[in-house]
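Usage example:
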Amino acid sequence: MNKRKVTLAAAAAGVITGVAGLSLAAMPAGAGQPPSLPDVSAESLVEQVLTSKPGAFGGTVEVDNKLGLPALAEIPQLADGKHSARIWTDGNGKFRAALPNGQSEQTIVNDGKITWSWNSANNEVTKAEHKADQPKPDEQKAQAVDPAAAAKQVVGMTKEFSDITVDGTARVANRAAYELVLTPKASEKTLIREVRIAVDAELKMPLRVAVLTNGASEPAGTVGFSEINVGAQDPKLFEFTPPAQAKVTTPEAKEQKDRDRGPELGLEQALQGKDPQIFGTGWDTVVGARIPAEAMTQVPAEAQGLVDKFTKKVSGAWGSGQIFNTKVATILIADDGRVVAGAVPEQVLFDTIGQVK
Amino acid sequence: MITRQFGSEVRWMLRRPRTLIGLFGLILVPILISFGIWTASDDGESGGGPPGLGAILQGNGMVVPIFTLFLSLNLLLPLVASIWAADGLAGEAQHGTLRGLLVAPVSRVRLLFVKLFGLAAMSLFAVTLMAVVGIIAGTAFLGTDGMMTLSGTTLSTAEGLARIGLFILLVTFQMVAIGAVALAVSSTTEHPLVVQAATMTTIIVFQVLGQFTSLDWLHPFLITTGFPGLIDVMRDPIPLGQIGDSTLLAGCYLLIGTGLAAIRLVTKDS
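Running the assembly step on the lines above writes:
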């Protein structure tokens, strides 16, 4: 009888442990106690962020995105929802990024001479040999998910137009960090309320970037390390041999193919265009471009339907077109092919579009 | 003593015709997949395969076992696990043989562990069989130069086999966890079909629930949520996060299932 009770108790304990384990796994990981760090002035922290040179590291980046962007085939990590990516760098320009997309994966490897870009969904490798003074689009794609690079860019571009404070500390990827907060100055006409950057206390490397918009308490977007190991990485990670069965193409050939695929890509390319026009400075900078007229007329009904779904029609003294609102950015596409975009309310775009050449 | 019981349990399971038919059905899966991909490649245009792992199957036969198990984990392997769990207790009750086992001077907990061991051993056997047939069929139909991962790296044959071995263990563990819960159901009824129906309904309902983003608070509780993450075995280097999460999730199910079955068996009147 007694033995039976013991058995029952043990079995019940097993059930309870299992249920507790499930509940624990379901709970979001707590932030834990913020670490206590010596005070640091905002100016010196900004200076250190801009001058810090992150050494070799590897880590997992979590992207949590509530921006309201439609999924772009090129960078699934930027679509709404939670995504993860893994990045490794040797600190001297070589890097590897693994961008999982559902069951497939894109891998981008810069081995110092060549940038390889592999996509398992179509078994294709793009091989871009480095030439001086030429942008490497795939590399930009990889850096878009690197919190350290992204934060550096944001700080560099906006520090003169922001009130900068240090707002306590945080623990990111198990490392102690300062919370650097950039608030746009009152004169800036922007949708963004503040950008919070967690800066590693030891390495002065940004570990997490969160963008908060006006009227929302939760960040509209967060990019941050969930795990990072600092130090030399396996050199094999920075090598890439195309698999035997893969098609290997050059970026030029791929660009041509993409152009044939449809004008919605033309639009994407125009927005990340080769020479975008920049209006204004700081937070309310507006980027402008002009889509070639033939691309505008070639829009197939299907793509047009997609565009219509995400945009609303607007018109004004500047002409007429379609506007696309997200939490952190607004894009205005005029019917004649002019495009302006920025982290600004739509009125600013209406005022600016007349200047697009 | 206990090893002899384990042995006789597995022998009993293997002697049932439906077990043999089930195993035969399982080995057809990798053969059909290899053959399907092979005929698709004859059409000339590559890249016509299913998305995800299917896209890299072309000329990459070592991936067939992983692809097969990954697909089967959604429906086929839970079905097989539920059949074995159903036979284990409900089936014995139906035939009246469970009564004999319950009154025998053998601890009922030990009886449960024998059943659980039988389930685990047969799951491992079934999964390994599928993987081995997958390797043979994949290599024969699709050829192989090592194993190409989703990350675009090529592993040597030895590394590839290690990945397959790891995947076999992971998939087996998921199967055992499902089987443990099915055993708990099995201990409450005399009708094996009820166990299978209940298990399969649960798995299917879980997968449907997993499709609704509005229910994402519920997803971490569903064992099926952990299935897709196991594909990380095919990434290089292997990210352990999702694999660990899935295995922990299955571990919780294993504890709950075993615990409930033990409570039921111990309190059961012979």
